[in-house]
Amino acid sequence: MSKTHLGHRARKRFGQNFLHDQQIIDSIVGLIDPQPGQNLLEIGPGLAALTEPVADQAGFLRVIEIDRDLADRLESHPFLNQKLEVIRGDAMQVDLQQFASPEQPLRVFGNLPYNISTPLIFHLLKFSPSIDNMHFMLQKEVVDRLAAEPGSKAYGRISVVVQQACRVSSVLDVPAAAFNPPPKVESAVVRLEPYQTSPTPVKDKQQLHQLCLQAFNQRRKTIRNNLKGLINEEQLLQLSIDPGARPETLSVADYCRMADWLTEQDSSNDE
Questions:
Q1: pLDDT of the residue at 271
Q2: What is the pTM of this model?
Q3: Rounded distance, CA 256 to CA 262, Å?
Q4: What is the domain partition of the chain in residue ranges?
Q5: What is the second-level CATH architecture of the domain 205-270?
Q6: 159 and 146 in contact (C-beta within 8 Å)?
Q7: Strand, helix or coil at 112?
Q8: Residue 15 and residue 183: Cα distance in Å, rounded?
Q9: In the beta sheet, which residues pair with residue 135?
């Protein structure tokens, strides 16, 4: 099978792999369950495999597309052009706040380019108060990391940061053959539902990010070693954290406790 699909060649620099398996497309649209009047936003519509059925069910949606050829194609599409607002640009640079309102929270979905999926999810989390839910097709390994529980190999920084903000569910496995060109990896669909009130609240999400970066930097070392210079052994014990624990054995709540302690230290130092 050639890499050209409907006259469009998949572009490596945008990480393009186009979904063409109708059964998988139907399953994903079923999971999204778009309804008329909802505030739907698709990231990277590509050749409109998901865009067309979602627009049919919902009547209208916005799409963000970085590839000019694909944006042109969508704007001149005989059926879709009446049902779409095409936002040209990089989803990493778009302020989603402008499309949301308290009455109409955003529902975001997309087949995300694997090369930017993690930073893009972190970008979207900044807008989590304005988002009802997100459905993304990602590399299966990334979905496993998002949904991983403490103690598992896949559990790490992205698990902690995303699970602090969202309920995470892996909802569908997608074989490589469902794409053209087929990627070298398996894929999966994840559902992220931002909490209105997180079960593990944290005072400063940026602090949590920084803490997790340092804590998971060397997974084989103990939390005492990885956080040297940040939190000492005595302080870890006061926070009910075992200084000899490996970073992947600590819960989201443990990381939030440590992050809050650091935030309090920062504010008392500022006074």
A1: 63
A2: 0.90
A3: 10
A4: 4-194, 205-270
A5: Orthogonal Bundle (1.10)
A6: yes
A7: coil
A8: 10
A9: 109, 191
